[in-house]
Amino acid sequence: MTQVKSLSLALIGLFVLLLVTSCSRPIDLARLSEDDVAELLEATLSQANGGLTENLESLTEHIDNLTLEDLCDQEFRDSLDFARQGHAGEAAYSASWTLDLSCTQLNVPEMGSVSTSSQNSYETPRISSTGSSAFAGSVSGLQPLQANMIWEGSYQKSGTQVLQFEQENTISSTLDLTLVELSIGKLDTHIHGGTGSFSMHVSKDEHTSTYAGTIVFHGDDTATIVLNGVSYPIHLQ
Q: Read out DSSP for the chain?
C-alpha cells in the first residue's frame, strides 16, 4: 500500500511539474497562430510603421518629381529617410535606392528597374521590431499622362521582433513577398490595387515555422491577407 501511495504521489508530482513547465513556456517556440501572423504582417506592411506601403508610396512621389527624360538609359541613385513618433508608437528607416531607366528612341521613359535597401525599426503597443528590408523589381506607368505607377517585384524583410501577445516572446522572422501589378496613384500616392504572394519564416530557439499565403491590395488603404483559406482584413496606413 505504501508503494502504491508513493507511486501515486510521484505521478501527481510529475503531472504538476509538466503543467507548470508548459504554462511558463513561450508561445509554442516558433509557432504562432494565423491571427498573430496576420497582425505581424499588417505591422510589417503599414505606412505608419515605415513598411512596404510607405516605401513604395514615397518612391512613387520621388520618381514622379524627377525629370525622367534627363535620366534615360542612366542609373540614378538617391536616399530616403522616414521617422514618426506618436501615441501609438514610433518608426524610422533609412534607405538607399537606385533607378535604372529605359526609354524609347524618342527619349520617352518606358520602364525603370528599381532596387532599395534599408535599415528600419518600429514599435507598437504589441510589437517591437528592428531589421532590414530590400526591394528589387520594376516600375512602369512613367509617362505624364499615365495616372498610376505599376510596381512589380520582390520585397524581403528580416529582423527580430519582441511580441506582446499572450505573453512576451522574442522571435526572428523573414518575409518574402512577390508583388504583381501594385498600382499607386501619382496624385494621391496611395495604393489603388494589386496582388501578391508571400512566405514568412518565424524562428525561435533553433525551431522554425513557415507560413504562406496571398494578399490583395484594395483602393481604400486596406488589404486582405489569406492564410490557410481564412481571410484577414488589414489596414495599410
A: -HHHHHHHHHHHHHHHHHHHHHHHS-TTTT---HHHHHHHHHHHH-TTTT-HHHHHHHHHHHHHTS-GGGGTTSEEEEEEEEEEEETTEEEEEEEEEEEEEEE-TTS-EEEEEEEEEEEEEEE-SSEEEEEEEEEEEEEE--STT--EEEEEEEEEEEEEEEEESSSEEEEEEEEEEEEEEEEEETTT--EEEEEEEEEEEEEETTEEEEEEEEEEE-SSSEEEEEETTEEEEEE--
Q: Inform me whether the pLDDT recorded for 4 exceeds 70.
A: no
Are 110 and 142 contacting, i.e. CB atoms less than 8 angstroms apart?
yes
Query: pLDDT by residue (tens digit) across 70-82?
Result: 999 889 999 999 9
Cell reading at 144: 505624364
pTM of the model: 0.85
pLDDT, residue 32, reads: 87
Between CA 108 and CA 103 the distance in angstroms is: 5
- Cα 133 to the chain's mean position, in Å? 9
Q: Using the predicted structure, report yes or no on whether residue 18 has a pLDDT greater than 70.
A: no
